[in-house]
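Data's thin. Show one?
=====
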Amino acid sequence: MVVSKCFNIKKTKKFLASKKRSKKLSSVPGIGKLIASQLENEQVHDSQMLFHKFEKLNLPAYLQWYMKSTSANSWHTGLTITALHMKYSPSNNGINLTPLKTMEKPEKKKVKVAIPQAQGMCCSIQ
């Protein structure tokens, strides 16, 4: 992962300053609270640091995918992830998405394919 530019703390604080948005952000269980508190306390200086904190959480698969597919340079990545979490959170909409642990790829089993030997196919050039 590429080390990203610093988050724009002023823009983030402006976003969090709105009572409605700040309240909404802080009311999200787990990830939302983490993002809101980290950004408000200015403990997150770049998105790599933010991603590192997310990796320690047991996030749903759609968030893992979003984090990997999103540019690490955008200061609003964390807020967008929060918005996604708010939208699809099981506590909000009753949508139960499979957690990451059960989404892990199963080990690949080696399958031996028997290739039949051609018998009586020897050609002799005379």
Notes: The radius of gyration is 24 Å.
